[in-house]
């Protein structure tokens, strides 16, 4: 009986240790080092959109441009697309109302979580009631690596002057819980509002959180 109790106690201790280790691993991957530094000129790029168009950053000279890295299998992405409240969709609509260009980027490699060809990317846009100006397909990860995109989501906002005005997380609460959206500081909304008003962005860089970008 004593042996059984000791074995049970040992097993319980090991299970607790495994759970704590797993929790630490999850926490350590929820956030990532930042990408490109805000304030520097945004790197030029050309990419193919899901609608077949060739899209270049130069096409939008003088306008605010938002780059959103996404992966529909990531719970952090699902949090911001969940309806209600439709946080990402609302940000896209607000950006369009201020004549900003929203570009959603899919950098998942073939065979990786979140990979989408043109047909699937268009289906996702419709299913999520999303409204980006374009969905850019980046299966080789060249655009993602150019901007040092770390997570999904990872947000970059390019000001009308062509410089990075903001990069980092959507908001201040690094969780996959939809309920946390209401109480979080929305960095993207605040940055877009400042740019639309011709004012400097107060928070220029934060640590992005989410799933790692599934590069090949």
- Can you tell me the CATH class of the largest domain? Alpha Beta
Residue fraction in strands: 15-25%
CATH architecture call of the largest domain: 3-Layer(aba) Sandwich
CATH third-tier fold name of the largest domain: Glutaredoxin
- For this structure, what is the CATH homologous superfamily of the largest domain? Glutaredoxin
Order of helices and strands: HEEEHHEHEHEEEHE
Give the total of beta strands.
9
Describe this structure in words.
By secondary structure, this protein is an alpha+beta fold. It has 2 domains: 1-30; 32-212, 3-Layer(aba) Sandwich (Glutaredoxin). The protein has 6 helices and 9 strands. The strands form 2 sheets. It has a 7-stranded mixed sheet. A two-stranded antiparallel ribbon has the order 6-9. The radius of gyration is 20 Å and the shape is globular. The protein starts with a helix and ends with a strand. Mean pLDDT is 89; it is low at 1-29.
Quick summary:
This protein is of the alpha+beta class. The protein has 6 helices and 9 strands; from the N terminus they run H-E-E-E-H-H-E-H-E-H-E-E-E-H-E.
Attribute tags:
Glutaredoxin, seven-stranded mixed beta sheet, 2 domains, single chain, globular, 216 residues, alpha+beta, two-stranded antiparallel sheet, disordered N terminus
Topology of helices and strands:
Blueprint: H1 2-30, E1 46-49, E2 54-56, E3 65-69, H2 75-81, H3 87-97, E4 101-106, H4 118-127, E5 134-137, H5 142-146, E6 151-152, E7 154-158, E8 164-168, H6 187-196, E9 211-212
């Amino acid at each position: 009986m004593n042996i059984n109790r000791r074995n049970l106690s040992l097993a319980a201790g090991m299970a607790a240790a495994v759970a704590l280790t797993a929790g630490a691993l999850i926490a350590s991957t929820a956030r990532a080092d930042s990408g490109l530094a805000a304030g520097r000129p945004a790197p030029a790029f050309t990419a193919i959109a899901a609608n077949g168009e060739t899209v270049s950053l130069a096409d939008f000279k003088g306008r605010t441009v938002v780059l959103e890295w996404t992966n529909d299998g990531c719970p952090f992405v699902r949090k911001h697309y969940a309806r209600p409240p439709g946080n990402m969709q609302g940000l896209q609509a607000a950006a369009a109302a201020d004549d900003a260009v929203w570009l959603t980027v899919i950098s998942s490699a073939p065979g990786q979580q979140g990979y989408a060809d043109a047909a699937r990317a268009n289906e996702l846009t419709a299913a999520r009631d999303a409204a980006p100006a374009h969905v850019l397909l980046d299966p080789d990860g060249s655009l993602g690596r150019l901007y040092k995109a770390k997570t999904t989501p990872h947000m970059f906002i390019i000001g009308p002057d062509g410089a990075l005005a903001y990069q980092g997380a959507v908001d201040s609460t690094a969780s996959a819980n939809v309920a946390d959206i209401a109480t979080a500081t929305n960095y993207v909304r605040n940055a877009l509002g400042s740019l639309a008003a011709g004012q400097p962005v107060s928070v220029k860089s934060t640590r992005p959180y989410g799933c790692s970008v599934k590069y090949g």
